[in-house]
């Protein structure tokens, strides 16, 4: 999108300095953005609006990218050891237990792996995903497992098609970093979640250091075009607090990734081994970029920091 902003800025005969004044965003941030470096959602929104670029349409384009990416991954999605980790799913389930008589929303459900596990305890689970093929896969797996209380729903996290106060619990696993507007998604979650209902988030977080965070996001952006942004823990906590969720419980751990398996999940073909060699360089020469990068016996590995956050909805 940054190429489009450069084109429009030049058409309007605006300098970066003039755009900074018009948008309220610093020249440094605009310069970084026009060089293809990720900036905050709010700054990007201000720049686009200052240039009269349709921000809503831009978000819709992002949704289409997500659909394309996950349609491509759907058939083999659950074969990945990063998705079908029963221990981490049980950790998530235990945070919201007991589920008896509860109506649960699994937001960004993928092929429904988490939904099916929770369905063993809950009254019903609504498995929401933006991908047609992921929803189709849920339907097939429901039939194979004779499940009637997992309800697949095609939907967008930014605009949930449910009534207010519909769910007792909302869970979302490895979804937030794909969303264009996490704040808007949280507002929607808050709306559909009952008063004193639980929200449980599991996602990858970056280093708190800006330079490390940018590179961590850049690696994933190259690998998967549906990737938007891993948040820093402090960023995520701030957004959650601003939406008036309370009683924050946080668990943090690291999960090891093997490069060849990591790119396989996103169906990424590393032509010329460009990404591999870039990450290998940092693994051998440092810095480790907050990822514990390691190249040993011709195998490239790294660790991503995971967070589980449980909060209570107070209306």
Helix and strand element order: HHHHHHEHEHEEHEHEHEHHEE
Overall pLDDT metric:
88
Which sheet architecture does the biggest sheet show?
9 strands, mixed
Indicate the proportion of strand residues: 15-25%
Present the secondary structure layout:
Layout (H helix, E strand, L loop, with lengths): L1 H10 L4 H8 L3 H8 L6 H10 L4 H19 L12 H11 L6 E5 L5 H6 L5 E6 L2 H13 L5 E5 L12 E7 L8 H11 E14 L3 H14 L7 E2 H10 L2 E14 H7 L8 H12 L8 E3 L2 E15 L2
Parallel strand pairs: 1-2, 1-4, 2-3, 4-5, 5-6
Antiparallel strand pairs: 5-9, 7-9, 8-9
Helix pairs in contact: 2-4
What do you see in this structure?
The chain has 315 residues and is an alpha/beta fold. Helix content is 44%, strand content 23%. It is built from 13 helices and 9 strands. It has helices spanning 2-11, 16-23, 27-34, 41-50, 55-73, 86-96, 113-118, 132-144, 182-192, 210-223, 233-242, 259-265, 274-285; strands at residues 103-107, 124-129, 150-154, 167-173, 193-206, 231-232, 245-258, 294-296, 299-313. Strands 1, 2, 3, 4, 5, 6, 7, 8 and 9 form a 9-stranded mixed β-sheet that branches. Helix 2 (16-23) packs across helix 4 (41-50). The longest helix has 19 residues, at 55-73. The two termini are 37 Å apart. The model has no long low-confidence stretch (mean pLDDT 88).
Short description:
Helix 2 crosses helix 4. The model has no long low-confidence stretch (mean pLDDT 88).
Features:
nine-stranded mixed beta sheet, alpha/beta, 13 helices, 315 residues
């Amino acid at each position: 999108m940054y190429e489009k902003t450069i084109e429009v800025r030049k058409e309007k005969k605006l300098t970066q300095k003039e755009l900074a004044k018009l948008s309220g965003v610093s020249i440094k941030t605009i310069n970084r953005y026009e060089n293809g470096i990720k900036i905050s959602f709010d700054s990007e929104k201000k720049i686009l609006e200052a240039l009269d670029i349709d921000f809503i349409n831009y978000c819709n384009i992002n949704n289409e990218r997500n659909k394309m990416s996950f349609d491509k991954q759907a058939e083999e999605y659950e074969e990945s050891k990063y998705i079908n980790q029963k221990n981490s799913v049980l950790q998530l389930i235990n945070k919201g237990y007991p589920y008896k008589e509860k109506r649960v929303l699994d937001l960004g459900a993928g092929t429904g792996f988490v939904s099916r596990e929770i369905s063993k305890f809950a009254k019903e689970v609504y498995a929401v995903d933006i991908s047609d093929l992921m929803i189709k896969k849920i339907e097939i797996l429901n039939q194979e497992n004779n499940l009637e209380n997992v309800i697949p729903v095609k939907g967008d996290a930014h605009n949930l098609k449910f009534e207010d106060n519909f769910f007792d619990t909302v869970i979302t696993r490895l979804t937030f970093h794909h969303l264009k507007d996490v704040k808007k998604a949280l507002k929607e979650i808050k709306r559909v979640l009952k008063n004193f209902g639980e929200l449980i988030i599991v996602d990858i977080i970056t280093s708190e250091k800006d330079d490390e965070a940018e590179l961590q996001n850049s690696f994933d952006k190259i690998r998967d075009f549906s990737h938007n942004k891993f948040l820093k823990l402090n960023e995520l906590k701030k957004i959650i607090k601003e939406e008036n969720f309370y009683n924050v419980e946080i668990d943090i751990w690291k999960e090891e990734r093997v490069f060849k398996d990591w790119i396989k999940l996103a169906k990424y073909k590393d032509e010329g081994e460009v990404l591999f060699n870039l990450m290998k360089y940092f693994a051998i020469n440092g810095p480790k970029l907050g990822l514990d990068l390691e190249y040993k016996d011709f195998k490239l590995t790294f660790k991503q920091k995971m967070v589980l956050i449980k909060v209570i909805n107070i209306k």
